Amino acid sequence: MNKIYNPKRVDWNNVLKRPTQTVADIEGLVNGIFEEVRSNGDDTIKKYTEQFDKVVLENMLVSKTEIEEAQKLVSDDLKEAIKLAKANIEVFHKAQKTERIEVETAAGVSCWQEKRPIQKVGLYIPG
Prior knowledge:
Blueprint (H helix, E strand, L loop, with lengths): L11 H5 L6 H18 L1 H12 L10 H9 L3 H20 L5 E6 L2 E5 L14
Antiparallel strand pairs: 1-2
């Protein structure tokens, strides 16, 4: 993260300028990384974490102690804000919930759509 303290007024426009990359600009790069993760798993995550975040991961699992220590670092106000955001997200997504839809598109050919939870998910949040 690039931190800028007390920029001069003449630099404000440059400091506030947002990147102009489009999805098309970065799609090839991102898709390549996804393919590499599919092929090589955690080794690829470690490689890109070191490349982009300048962090060398020894172990990707977080211990219970690390979680407890991290919780102590978060203010009560932020915890409450996170709980409120969670509740808002849950309300929004419950409104999107649909039942299974099944259609016979031809004699003996059934197509269906259903939403189901998954057991595990991996997230990579750069920065």
